[in-house]
Amino acid sequence: MRAVIALPYLWLGLFFLLPFALVLAIALGTNAPDSVPPVELGLSLANFKLLLSDRLYLSAWLSSLRIAATATLVALLLGYPMAYAVARARPGLRPTLLMLIVLPFWTSFLIRIYAWMGLLAENGTLNQFLRWTGLVSDPGTILGTDWAVHLGIVYAYLPFMVLPLYATLEKLDTSLLEAASDLGATPLKAFLTVTLPLSLPGIAAGCLMMFIPAVGEFVIPDLLGGTRTLMIGKVLWDEFFTNSDWPLASAVAICLLVLLVAPIALVQRQQAKSLAPKS
Amino acid sequence: MNGKPRFAFGMLAFGYAFLYLPLLLVMAYSFNESRLVTVWAGFSLKWWRALLDNEAMLSAAWYSLRIAFVSATASSVLGLAAGYVLSRAPPFLGRTLFGSLVIAPMVMPEVVMGISMLLLFVGADRLFGGPGRGFVTIAIAHTTFGLAFVAVVVQARLADFDRSLEEAAMDLGATPWVTFLTVTLPLIAPAVAAGWLLAFTLSLDDLIMTQFVAGGEAQTLPMLVYSSVRLGVDPQINVLATVIVIVAAAALIVSGRLTRQRPSGQR
Amino acid sequence: MSDPIVRIEGLGKRFGAVQAVDDVSLDVVRGELFALLGGSGCGKTTLLRMLAGLETPDTGRILIDGQDMTATPAHLRPVNMMFQSYALFPHMDVAANVGYGLRREGVAKAETDRRVAEALELVKLEGLGARRTAQLSGGQRQRVALARALVKRPKLLLLDEPLAALDRKLREGTRFELVRLQEQLGLTFVVVTHDQEEAMSMATRLAVMDKGRIVQTGSPFELYEHPANRFVAGFIGVANIFETGPGRWLALRPEKIALVAERPATNQTVRGLIVDIAYEGDRSLYRVATERHGTMQVSATNVTRHRDGAFQRGREVWLGWDDSAAHPLES
User: Fold this and answer.
1) Does residue B111 contact residue B179 with C-beta atoms inside 8 Å?
2) Cα(C195)–Cα(C225) distance, integer angstroms
3) Which residue of B has its CA nearest to A182?
């Protein structure tokens, strides 16, 4: 048993935990463009000070949190009824319905964002549709705006939201709803007072599983957003690849880690609880 | 509540449309005569022919497939061990940390994982002169997050597993290890296979971590697609998209079959 | 006791705040069919599992055939168990299931096949070796589980609620067969059950358990006619229990009481009114309201095929028994 524990533990320790220590070390260093790698090790907090005080970076933090949170909320509002519908469908139909929700997740992430690029471009399908129906004569371009980024995040992470919701709703005992109805509750009341509270763990899990990666999202703001869309993932990328400022990029990573450590721990606890042996 | 909730089903239909419309449009335009992916100019297979001749794409695809195969297999072995430990091992020192380490790659933003792995490999280069950047480093990166997904699938399967089967095996004289090999593993194998498929798909698709840890020798398919897409829309990408959707659908159906088998030792 | 095959000394096991098994000591004689009887939560299953090696005791010792096996893991004990859920391996056919234990011992294939066929014949499943377990009926699955446990000829065979999953008719036949097999093969069985009728009819000796402790051990006859306390008296069969003084009671079995129309000639006589009758075909259980001892239960065999008008509900009757028919209790 000890060998079985050791194998994945060592791997993760070496390739997941240890790297973070290195990131911290680099984050405390300074940029040295002439050396390879372009880092001079030290114990400076300058990078952190910059990230937490400069207006540009602060607004990047805030907009990342804001966009991720908004997208998560929208996904929740869309995903909850979807999960609910699948949970209430005929048992034989459920695997297929679920599969259809998960399928986009199994196709290429890039391709899916690319699809939205085509849809939301100036001459894209959406605008063509709007012009053709005469609804809007001169639609602006959604591509390159925050709206597009929101859409992209909701689109990309919707399965992450629906699956935990479904898992919780599926376990719901329908006889509880029947009891509520028998005691005089309207369907809406029954939903608000029975279903919703009991599905809170699923809501929490879905929101966490979507919010955490969305905060650090890079591809979506890069391809769908504009120059004014500032997300922290993009900041990290640009600092690292464009500016070759490894220490600053590392500092961004550390800040992101610190920000997300608590939510990640919550996810781990949820996971452990939901899979605890049922006796 | 009587009958099916109409609002929820309406939203489900809308959700499906939302999810599939973009994909279907992309797939449709792979047959478009003209280069523009926004104006339909007639049916044509020319972009399909072009893709088949596209050396760069094909070799990138082959590169990605090899990496995906290696990393999915490594993920499955490690993920099986991790899932088993999380499900069965009695409490040990560092168990909570272990649990967090296993699941964190699933939700951690890829830019964070990417930069940290790159720094690790850079450090290793300085200390040991290797491994450089390329196939090995990409595979390692993909294995690390694939592990998390397999572990979750395995853990879920084991939670449902009828433990009296293992007790019966031990009662009949099988050591814990032999019990695992002859009873547990055969019965959870479909779940492990489904996990392998998932890890394979994720590896094929990964962009960000790969960008950080890749070398100059070759590009993976997502890397190629990304650089192409940044320059604008390319109908060959549409063709690629169609192929990927079909392959992904097939993989998902197989995976669903594997995890849906009922009578194999489930409570 | 001469040379017990199992000796349990001071065994204890705790789960969280619950003491599942509390200082249990008992011996099992070679070749007997020993039953552990009790309600749910009394600790009988935990005790059985500790015997199998599937749970480790917190305190005490387990000696099997003279050897201390308290710390020996399950796969090294000469003990086999028939699980309540049967625990048949779904990915193996019947023959592979039955032969599993032999293969673990390294028995050669030819020998394994022979012994598997022999075991299947023993449980009347000959020829079904190639069936998948999912295709079997409940009774057949039980036989496979039994064959699988028997084929290794263990020193001790443990059976966890062997008849619980079977329907009534099947239960009686199987009960008989289990006893027959045990005697035929000369094995020692330990059976766990909550059904006291089952325990009484199958066991050579049994132990009644309550709250993790053994309340009384003995032969079915001893436990029925000489219960150690009110708990055992009430648990096994039906008993009329009445106080005769501070800390003293009498236990009187319903079939020991005569139900007659006129005052009987026995030591004890009581008048009463028939309040209810439970007709069971072969016998009837009467509930008779009496002034002296409250409602008493009396059972009488329905010897003739005619209904006796004197013994209907609402009728006045006389109950009589000799002093020797009642058993004194002090707890």
Assistant:
1) no
2) 18
3) B1
Range of the domain at B127: 41-260
Give residue B123's pLDDT.
Answer: 86
CATH number of domain containing B147:
1.10.3720.10
* pLDDT for residue C222 is more than 50: yes
Residues C9 and C115 in one domain: yes
pLDDT tens digits, A105-120: 888 888 888 888 878 8
Q: Which of A103, A109, A276 sits opposite B249 (nearest CB)?
A: A103
pLDDT of residue A275: 66
CA pair distance B26, B242, nearest whole angstrom? 7
Q: Residues C187, C247: one domain?
A: no
Question: In terms of residue numbers, what domain contains C147?
Answer: 4-230
β-partners of residue B236 are: none
The pLDDT tens digits of the residues spanning A14-53 come to 898 899 888 988 888 888 777 777 778 888 888 888 888 8
- Signed CA dihedral, A74, A78, A81, A85: sign only: negative
- What are C172-195's pLDDT values in tens digits? 889 999 999 999 999 999 999 999
Size of interface A-B (CB pairs under 8 A): 272
pLDDT beyond 60 at C150: yes
Q: How many CB atoms lie within 10 A of CB B35?
A: 12
Please list, in sequence order, all residues whose beta carbon lies within 8 angstroms of the beta carbon of residue A36, skipping any fewer than 6 positions away.
none
List the Cα angle C10/C13/C19 in 5-degree steps: 105
Q: Which residues of B touch A275 (CB under 8 A)?
A: 86-87, 155-156, 159
Q: Which residues of B touch A218 (CB under 8 A)?
A: 109-111, 208
Query: Is B63 part of a structural domain of the chain?
Result: yes
CA distance C328 to C324: 10
How far away is chain B from the Cα of C97, in angstroms, using its nearest Cα? Answer: 10
Q: Given this model, what pLDDT does residue C2 score?
A: 60
Structure confidence at residue C251 as a pLDDT band (50, 70, 90): very high
In chain B, positions 120-159, which contact chain A (CB-CB < 8 Å)?
120, 122-123, 140-141, 143-144, 147, 151-152, 155-156, 159
| A62 to A56, A66, A217: CA distances (angstroms) | 10, 6, 14
Asked if the structure places residue C235 within a domain, the reply is: no
Tell me: do C166 and C192 sit in the same domain: yes
Q: Is the pLDDT of residue C143 over 90?
A: yes
Domains belonging to chain A, first-starting first, are 54-274 (1.10.3720.10)
Asked whether the beta carbons of C205 and C193 are under 8 A apart, the reply is no
Contacts of C80 in chain B (CB under 8 A): 171-172
Are C54 and B167 in contact (CB < 8 Å)? Answer: yes
Domain identity same for C208 and C77: yes
Question: Is A110–B226 a contact, with Cβ atoms under 8 angstroms apart?
Answer: yes
Residues of chain B whose pLDDT is less than 70? Answer: 1-4, 35-39, 233, 261-267
Which chain A residues are Cβ-neighbours of B233 within 8 angstroms?
A: 114, 117-118, 121
Does the predicted model carry a pTM greater than 0.90? no
CB contact under 8 A, B173 and C152: yes
pLDDT at A137: 63
**Res A124: pLDDT:** 75
| Confidence at residue B129, expressed as pLDDT on a 0 to 100 scale | 79
